């Protein structure tokens, strides 16, 4: 979010707009100073106290943003960020400053995933984080799970390791391919993604989305979204919400598509 925060600050500071950042990691003040200098951050960064965290609802995850009007009233709280949230955040700021709303960009137009179901999945050719190129068509005759995710979304960064460590490891030898597709376009977000992949030893390919791909896949603007594609290239299921029940259902749907495991050596099969 730092790049977008800098953008907002530089864009609106002449309209009596201020940003105050509060750092939760109180033992890492030196690294925070280095990071602020590296990113050219001009607005103040304060160190959180237990009392501040308590009074602001017991914050224990980031990013959380409070939009406060000139009277000191909290008018909006943003806890989970996707493209439409960023658009809404900026428009909320503009409204408080007496400025007109922004035009609706392509990336924040409503999603339309229903039209994708039971249709052929749009092919793509995307660059991966390890500087390769991946296409959907290269996995013909295999089941494919596309995982649209964002490094700024706390649910995404929990789902991705699950897809890598559990689903891919468990079902890859039964012809399942899992492809992570990062929808963030900012350079800072790409850097965070690369660090996250390395730190978590993610083995599945992570591709960088393009605006054309986002449009072709129903104008995805929230994460995570999982799309299950069968061996014939048709979209069988789309998952937008996640809990234990939905994850179990997703695994059942996967199993219905996958080929059975070969019998152990020496075990006869019925013909």
Description:
It is built from 8 helices and 11 strands. The model has no long low-confidence stretch (mean pLDDT 86). The strands form 4 sheets. It has a 5-stranded mixed sheet, with helices on one face. Strands 1-2 form a two-stranded parallel ribbon. The termini are far apart. It is α/β, with parallel strands linked by helices.
List keywords for this structure.
alpha/beta; 271 residues; 8 helices; elongated; single chain; two-stranded parallel sheet; five-stranded mixed β-sheet; 18% strand
Quick recap of the structure?
This protein has 271 residues and is α/β, with parallel strands linked by helices. The protein has helices at residues 2-12, 29-39, 50-55, 83-96, 156-171, 187-199, 211-216, 244-257; strands at 21-23, 45-47, 65-68, 74-78, 125-127, 133-135, 143-149, 176-182, 206-208, 225-229, 235-239.
How is this fold's topology laid out?
Elements: H1 2-12, E1 21-23, H2 29-39, E2 45-47, H3 50-55, E3 65-68, E4 74-78, H4 83-96, E5 125-127, E6 133-135, E7 143-149, H5 156-171, E8 176-182, H6 187-199, E9 206-208, H7 211-216, E10 225-229, E11 235-239, H8 244-257
Parallel strand pairs: 1-2, 7-8, 8-9
Antiparallel strand pairs: 3-4, 5-6, 7-10, 10-11
- Counting DSSP H or I runs of 4 or more residues, the number of helices is 8
Structural class, from secondary structure content? alpha/beta
Catalogue the unreliable spans.
none
Strand order of the largest sheet: 9-8-7-10-11
Portion of residues in helices?
25-40%
Mean pLDDT: 86
Distance between the termini: 59 Å
What's the total number of strands?
11
Note the main sheet.
5 strands, mixed
Quaternary organisation: single chain
* Helix and strand element order: HEHEHEEHEEEHEHEHEEH
Rg computed from alpha carbons, rounded to a whole number of angstroms: 22 Å
How big a fraction of the residues is strand? 15-25%
Principal-axes geometry comes out as elongated
